[in-house]
Amino acid sequence: MPEPARPHTAPGAAERLLQRLEWTVLRRLDGLLQGDSRTLLRGAGIDLADLREYQPHDDVRHIDWNVTARLATPHVRVYTEDRDMTAWFLLDLSPSVDFGAPGQAKRDMLAGFVGVLARLIQRHGNRVGAVLHDGRAALGRVLPAGGGRRQVLQLLHLLAGGQGAPGLAAPPGITDLRQLLTQAQGLLRRCSAVFVVSDFLSTPGWDKPLARLARRHDVVAVRLLDPLELELPDMGLLLLRDPETGEQLQVDTHERGFRHRFARLAAQREAELRAGLARAGVDTLELSTDEDLLGALVRFMQLRGRRPRLAAGSPALAAAS
Questions:
Q1: Four-CA torsion 101, 107, 110, 116, nearest 10 degrees
Q2: CATH of 24-30+82-229+283-305, one of 3.40.50.1110, 1.10.10.10, 3.30.980.10, 3.40.50.410
Q3: What is the DSSP letter of 162?
Q4: d(Cα 297, Cα 46) in Å, to the nearest integer?
Q5: Can you give 269-280 as a three-state secondary structure string?
């Protein structure tokens, strides 16, 4: 079993980071969205509240096939939501997330996103927990779910490379996200909100365990990326290093043909990644290192907020009886 992270006093670095996020992102997010966290934690329940016609972006797993066949129109089941939810962050801390400019690497975006979301969720009385995985070990470090601002500080401390943080001295090799997702499937017993934060640079096959996790939980895939991973500028001779394997290669980015080949392969990898996320059937948020975190969060929360919610009084409910 993975060893739980032990609580301890968070150092000043975590406190400073959280204070900065609270002032620069969280306060502005509150003003824009009135502090409503319901778009983040949808909740789940076992009590059928209603039936209504299927609408774009509805979860196809909630389609009631008996009613659909009876009315000849797709209908979905709507359940009473449980507002008391636990949010889990499944964090890919493999070496590839260190890519990017100092202070603006993918790991920095990860820490900012987790800090803001964890604080926002915790403020509304919900608990947060995390599994931190270096992409190599069979089991990641578990921070048991808890509440309070101290819990967020503990999580940020682990991300900053404090006690028990993985990924700092991971041996060379290719990340296998299946290990993180499989561990989470066995760990999360109660229906939860799950944020899988990764660049998804992994061996193939992660889409199936991600889909299995989404059958029970409200899963959001938070993809980290850097524009240089998609297209290289003309910068002359460069020494490129694969952060996963440690392999180094000197390339001439002045050569147009090389830049075109790089962009073509990157586009192919991009298409495969998006297809995997689509097969898994999860909501996706992309966090780019050249994008403002606040703007990305607002865009995502507005998208989820437009999803149809409870609609009492629909005549379709009678068709279930």
A1: -80
A2: 3.40.50.410
A3: -
A4: 29
A5: HHHHHHHHHHHH
Query: Which residues, at least 6 apart from 62, have a Cβ–Cβ distance to it below 8 Å?
Result: 76, 77, 78, 79
Q: What is the pLDDT of residues 125-179, one digit of tens each?
A: 889 999 999 877 778 899 999 999 999 999 999 988 744 444 444 455 678 899 9
Question: What is the rounded distance in angstroms from the CA atom of residue 157 to the CA atom of residue 217?
Answer: 27
- For residue 215, the one-letter residue type is R
Three-state DSSP string of 87-151: EEEEEECCHHHHCCCCCCCHHHHHHHHHHHHHHHHHHCCCEEEEEEECCCCCCCEEEEEECCHHH
How many Å separate Cα 182 from the centre of its chain? 15
| CB atoms near residue 76 (< 10 Å) | 21
Cα–Cα distance, 119 to 113 (Å, whole number): 10
Residue bearing tokens 């041996």: 171
pLDDT tens profile 16-27: 888 888 888 888
How is residue 35 written in tokens?
Answer: 């502090």
- Smallest CA-to-CA distance from 280 within 290, 288, 268, 272 is with 272
By residue count, the chain amounts to 321
Nearest alpha-carbon partner for 99 in 276, 252, 226: 226
Could you give the 3-state DSSP secondary structure of residue 297?
helix
Task: Determine the Cα–Cα distance for residues 230 and 224; give it in Å rounded to an integer.
Answer: 12
Is residue 8 within a helix (H) or strand (E), and if so which, with residue range?
A: none
**Residue 258: pLDDT band with limits 50, 70, 90:** confident
- Are β-strands 48-53 and 283-288 bridged in parallel, bridged antiparallel, or unpaired? unpaired
89: which 2 tokens?
A: 């962050």
CA angle 278, 118, 99 (to 5 degrees): 60
